[in-house]
């Protein structure tokens, strides 16, 4: 085997993540590496904390990026907050709620499942019934933006219910953060995790997390040690705490943290409320275009995520063949369905830097060409025009 320098192709990333990365973020990655205890890097860590607090809309002192992807952010929340014997209510309406269940079991907790059909939001009435039936439950966990289905659940209402029954909350905002409102303090979320590679448009591999004072109290008063040494917040905060003096815990991914700092700076420069509006605006153009083509969305409009669109595969279209042609001929990546939705939907992302008019029109045009050529049942030529009409009318 002859191995040479790897040069990746230039793609337009419109799958469920990673998303297109801003040239500013890529440039930040190439800056000189310094030590993870260097005084200048400590300054960057403090700034990163403030930028993550801005994105989460929180003042939580225990806010930082986990040096690993969103799945590790999820595990960080569960291994720190769930002790053996704890009863945890987990709401599942897609793949990632199922991963929450796995984390509870591995931490020695007992799962109380609240299940909803994939493609629908978490039902607050079902959660309330579970809370009434399990007064000894201590934690409620749910996914705000379910990446496997494109569904947005009402985090404010679900968190309020949990608080009413004296439960802490763990909320997955991996796809939500930066694309739809996430208001940690206003909604009273206790533990929240996200990922760098979705609406933040950073490179994969980092997971912003934040914990309330109540969550911190539970962590520090644990009867048993956290089962993961690397993710034990009692240790990690010695490194991510306030002040210049930091206790060595692990070698932080220095250059990756440069890139997250730049991505969050871009978000703050735009204004997070403006970012939420931008995602909704371009989502509507994509929705109008697909509707004109005769394609349906899996999720009802009032529960639809703007940044992750689950489009039902039309009759006459071969799922894998369409995605392959888009990738090979148009350098366009879209996502396949997961779990029970495999082969039934495409997951099309409009995230962060890639959420723009150019990508909307490019995606519609490329899909129109491929689906039309393959004989799928669509209204060929209608999608791009409908989206352009939308932009003309709303611009």
Automatic annotation (TrEMBL):
The modification N6-(pyridoxal phosphate)lysine is found at residue 198. Pfam families: Aminotran_5. GO terms for molecular function: alanine-glyoxylate transaminase activity; L-serine-pyruvate transaminase activity. Residues 33-338 form the Aminotransferase class V domain. One of its GO terms (biological process) is glycine biosynthetic process, by transamination of glyoxylate. Substrate binds at residue 347. Signal peptide: none annotated. Belongs to the class-V pyridoxal-phosphate-dependent aminotransferase family. This is Alanine--glyoxylate aminotransferase family protein. It comes from Pelovirga terrestris.
């Amino acid at each position: 085997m002859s191995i040479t320098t790897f040069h990746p192709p230039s793609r337009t990333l419109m799958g469920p993540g990673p998303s297109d990365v801003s040239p500013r973020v890529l440039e930040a990655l190439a800056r000189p590496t310094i030590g993870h205890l260097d005084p200048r890097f400590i300054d960057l860590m403090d700034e990163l904390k403030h930028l993550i607090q801005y994105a989460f809309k929180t003042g939580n002192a225990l806010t930082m990026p986990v040096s690993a992807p969103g799945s590790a952010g999820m595990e960080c929340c569960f291994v720190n907050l769930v002790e053996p014997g704890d009863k945890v209510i987990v709401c599942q309406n897609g793949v990632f709620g199922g991963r929450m269940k796995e984390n509870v079991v591995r931490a020695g907790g007992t799962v109380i499942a609240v299940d909803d059909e994939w493609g629908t939001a978490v039902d607050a009435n079902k959660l309330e019934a579970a809370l009434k039936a399990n007064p000894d439950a201590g934690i409620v966990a749910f996914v705000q933006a379910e990446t496997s289905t494109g569904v947005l659940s009402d985090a404010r209402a679900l968190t309020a219910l949990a608080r009413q029954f004296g439960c802490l909350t763990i909320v997955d905002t991996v796809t939500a953060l930066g694309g739809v409102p996430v208001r940690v303090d206003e909604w009273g979320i206790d533990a929240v995790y996200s990922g760098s590679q979705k609406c933040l448009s950073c490179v994969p591999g980092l997971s912003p997390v934040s914990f309330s004072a109540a969550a911190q109290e539970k962590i520090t008063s644990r009867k048993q040690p956290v089962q993961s040494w690397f993710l034990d917040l009692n240790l990690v905060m010695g490194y991510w705490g306030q002040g210049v003096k930091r206790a060595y815990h692990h070698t932080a991914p220095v250059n990756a943290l440069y890139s997250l700092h730049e991505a969050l700076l871009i978000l703050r420069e735009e204004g997070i409320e403006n970012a939420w509006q931008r995602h909704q605006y371009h989502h509507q153009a994509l929705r109008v275009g697909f509707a004109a083509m005769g394609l349906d969305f899996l999720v009802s409009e009032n529960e639809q995520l703007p940044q992750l669109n689950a489009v039902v595969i039309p009759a006459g279209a071969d799922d894998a063949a369409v995605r392959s042609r888009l990738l090979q001929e148009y350098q366009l990546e879209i996502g396949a369905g997961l779990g029970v939705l495999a082969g039934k939907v495409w997951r099309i992302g409009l995230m962060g830097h890639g959420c723009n008019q150019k990508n909307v029109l490019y995606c519609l045009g490329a899909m129109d060409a491929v689906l039309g050529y393959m004989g799928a049942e669509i209204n060929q030529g209608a999608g791009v025009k409908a989206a352009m009409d939308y932009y003309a009318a709303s611009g």
